[in-house]
Write a structure and sequence with these properties.
It comes from Diabrotica balteata. By secondary structure, this protein is of the alpha+beta class. It has 13 helices and 22 strands. It is flat and about 125 Å long.
Length: 478
């Protein structure tokens, strides 16, 4: 086999050397030699695999990988016709040998690792206008969508043709194309829509969701029960809701029409839906005053025609927030105050006649000085949490928040009747109600901000002058 191989190469090279310029580059000769070597290697390996390896054809049929050269074709034409496989059907794409089945048109590539022919895949990846493109085995192109992170088919004439072949034919000739309406009519329509008012939908009967229905219906009650007893009974399982306007509990004992005689049934509205479940477990079948009462979820049914005028008005957003705060306050658990506990406002000391508000128009920085003086003086008797100067109040008010009521009581005699900047001070414990903050007009606010900016600028200028003086002094000393 080796001798035949080398002889075959020399013969082919001989014919090629006749047409080559002696001074031609040797790399062309090497390329031709390598090509002949690859073809002969393929022929040799294919001949060796006649009995062991087969070429797949379709799903079940196989083609024997037998390759014949030009001389063999003339002598063994019968064998070639039987297998339908010869070297004419093999070509190369780079270093890859590709066999084309003449009967089916299917292509196979030679797998060097498995040492056998495998069906060539037509799938490929590439770029079109900086976009990832994937072509499947059927030739359908897909484009990569970066935003959706998914492949989407390219909808063109080829794609529509394949789609119609697989899923049915669509006669485009029968599709009616709507004519575009004139722009004038469109504008008239939009104007008409803008001018028209939407009609309010007529009110209809409501259906209350069970997950939000906190109403329970109680039957077989004693006829001598009153509202207070009924409330006490129902509050065994939860807090009963109050009406936000009247403040009364939302319970009802039904009476005989036209009389004050009780029928023995009633309605109760809880705040929490959990109270409904608890009442069904605890109060249903409960013996009350010798009678076994029945508790169930309330169901509202319409009797007669629905009258929208009798429907209660929707609550405003403000009323809903108020009701929500009231309910949250009911469920807010806090320990009860001990006897002798004092209120928070007893920690606050109010000082009056401390200043004249006009002085702050001249020098805004006096506010900080007053705060600092009061903090230093009051800290002798305890923790000073906050000092606030009401600079717009005509009585010259300052507020001092101490740590405890006892500390505040010690500060009062310290400041009450004391003279400060030729003004006699008054000090007392805050009553917890009086508000000392004075509302400012827009012009007053603007003036105050301007004064404050001027104060900051003066402070910065003074600081810079001080630094310059110290710098000059240090330079003169050195």
């Amino acid at each position: 086999m080796t001798e035949e191989k080398s002889g075959h190469i020399d013969t082919n090279l001989e014919s090629s050397f006749k047409n080559i310029d002696p001074e031609a580059r040797t790399d062309e000769i090497e390329a031709e030699s390598n090509k002949q070597l690859r073809e002969n290697d393929l022929k040799e390996s294919s001949q060796e695999k006649i009995n062991s390896g087969n070429v797949e054809k379709g799903n079940n049929e196989k083609v024997s990988p037998k390759i014949t050269n030009d001389t063999q074709q003339t002598t063994d034409s019968s064998e070639t016709s039987e297998t339908g496989y010869d070297s004419k059907n093999v070509h190369y794409e780079g270093d890859v040998a590709i066999y084309t089945d003449p009967s089916s048109g299917s292509q196979y590539t030679w797998d060097k690792e498995k040492n056998e022919w495998v069906l060539k895949s037509n799938e490929s990846y590439g770029f079109e206008d900086d976009t990832h493109v994937y072509t499947d085995a059927e030739g359908v192109k897909y484009f990569w969508d970066k935003e959706k992170s998914a492949w989407f088919p390219k909808v063109d004439e080829d794609f529509m043709a394949r789609y119609q072949m697989n899923y049915g034919f669509v006669d485009n000739a029968k599709i009616e194309v709507k004519k575009e309406e004139p722009v004038v009519k469109l504008e008239e329509k939009t104007k008409k829509v803008k001018g028209e008012k939407r009609k309010a939908s007529e009110p209809t009967w409501f259906q209350l969701d069970e997950t939000q229905n906190t109403n329970v219906y109680v039957s077989n009650l004693p006829t001598d029960i009153n509202e207070e007893e009924f409330i006490d009974l129902m509050q065994k399982c939860g807090l009963v809701m109050r009406d936000p306007h009247s403040g009364k509990f939302r319970i009802k004992l039904y009476r005989e029409p036209g009389t004050d005689l009780l029928k023995g049934d009633g309605l109760c509205t809880y705040i929490k839906i959990e109270s409904v479940d608890l009442s069904l477990q605890v109060l249903d079948g409960y013996n009350y005053k010798g009678q076994t009462i029945k508790v169930e979820r309330a169901k509202f049914q319409m009797k007669g025609d629905f009258d929208p005028s009798l429907k209660p008005k929707m609550k405003k957003k403000k009323d809903k927030l108020k009701l929500k705060k009231q309910q949250e306050k009911l469920f807010d658990w806090r320990p009860e105050k001990k006897l002798g506990d004092r209120a928070k406002h007893e920690r606050v000391v109010i000082v009056k006649n401390l200043f004249d508000p006009k002085i702050f128009d001249v020098d805004v920085g006096l506010i900080l000085e007053f705060q600092q003086d009061l903090r230093e003086e009051c800290s002798k008797y305890g923790e000073v949490r906050k000092v606030q100067i009401y600079d717009r109040h005509p009585e010259g008010v300052a507020q001092i928040n101490m740590g405890t009521p006892e500390e505040a009581e010690q500060v009062v005699p310290l400041l009450n009747g004391r003279w400060f900047m030729k003004r006699q001070l008054t000090a007392e414990i805050w009553d917890g109600k009086t508000k000392y903050k004075v509302a400012e007009t827009d012009s007053e606010i603007s003036q105050r901000l301007d004064n404050w900016d001027k104060f900051l600028e003066d402070e910065e200028a003074n600081k810079k002058n001080t630094e310059d003086k110290e710098k000059v002094k240090s330079e003169s000393n050195s």
